[in-house]
Amino acid sequence: MKMVTLSKVTLVFAVALLGWAYQATRPPPPAILGASGGLPITSPRVRLKDGRHLAYMEAGVHKENARYKVIFVHGFASTKESGFPVSQELVEELGIYMLFFDRAGYGDSDANPKRCLKSDATDVEELADALQLGDKFYVVGCSMGGYVAWSCLHYIPHRLAGVSLVVPAVNYWWPLPDDVRRSAYGKLDARDRRTFWIAHHAPSLLCTWLTQTWFPTSPIVRGERGAFTAKDWEILTELWKRESGQLDRAKATRQGTYESLCRDATILFGSWEFDPTEMRDPFPDGEGVVSIWQGYEDRIVQVEIQRHAARRLPWVRYHEHPEAGHALPDMDGVGDEIARELVLGVGEAPPQSEPRRGS
Fold first, then answer.
1. Distance from CA of residue 4 to its chain's centroid?
2. Which of 22, 105, 198, 222 could serve as 111's disulfide partner, Cβ 3.0–4.6 Å?
3. Rounded distance between C-alpha atoms, residue 260 and residue 33, angstroms
4. Please, are residues 211 and 205 in contact by the beta-carbon 8 Å criterion?
5. How many CB atoms are located within 10 Å of the residue 206 CB?
6. Cα separation, 36 vs 28, whole angstroms
7. Which residues cross the membrane (predicted)?
8. 276: Cβ–Cβ under 8 A, 6 or more apart, which residues?
9. Which domains does the chain possess?
10. pLDDT tens digit string along 115-166?
11. Torsion sign over Cα 290, 295, 301, 306
């Protein structure tokens, strides 16, 4: 009799466990934008070929008078309102039109259930066409937006006039030399390593992992102070005081963390259809510039992988600031350096950091 009861208990437990596992792998539905009783839309938007909408924000000189048209791709847990630190003086001097947009699932842009590396690139292309930016345009990808810049270089190189990858996010499962991978991955907090491992090996469980409260999750994903250098935190604190919208998670994740943060992580750390370090020069005749801007002290994006990419891609201009962290573009004057080199192909090269012992 006891054996029968025990078997029933075991069966009930197994069924309950399977039920939990099934629910854990089912993504929550996104909040609906613009529908009756849904989330309000407060930004202008364009309609894409598949029926989705992308929200955008324009800045700089008027599009009709611009000499250079630049699309900026925001980072993780951020929105178009984060902007980019280019001085008004430089914008007017060079005639730069700046276009910011909410990536799919962020802010006021519709979620994309089929979002992938290629769709993020074609979103940029369709946005440019909808706003009539012409045959070619410039792209700046910051942090997580860096993977979108890599995607643009691979999928729509014929549309690009130049690209800047600013502290661009990296994938520890790219085809990397073992010593580079070990060094970069080993520098991460153990909680970040666990989270990134789940994003790569068990992506369907990532949302559950990030929303559970039993175990500590990634300091990087949570935006904790320890994920930044002291200088980074000082810069970010000043930005928050000015109400710049930088890292406004409430606005960024209004449709749910699955459609924004989780999709970001699973795409970035997933299996890519191409190897960035094997990419061909999109400007073999020197008609455009591709550059990587990296801070040596960055705790979020490890410098070893950026250096490896720069060694493999001699046509990429690599800039490494020895004392900068992840807030590199917000350091005084750096945003102007990035913009000037992007559109003019010239600029004063920042000081390079020599590899330090153990790096």
1. 54
2. 105
3. 14
4. no
5. 26
6. 20
7. none
8. 150, 153, 154, 174, 309, 313
9. 45-344 (3.40.50.1820)
10. 999 999 999 999 999 999 999 999 999 999 999 999 999 999 999 999 999 9
11. positive
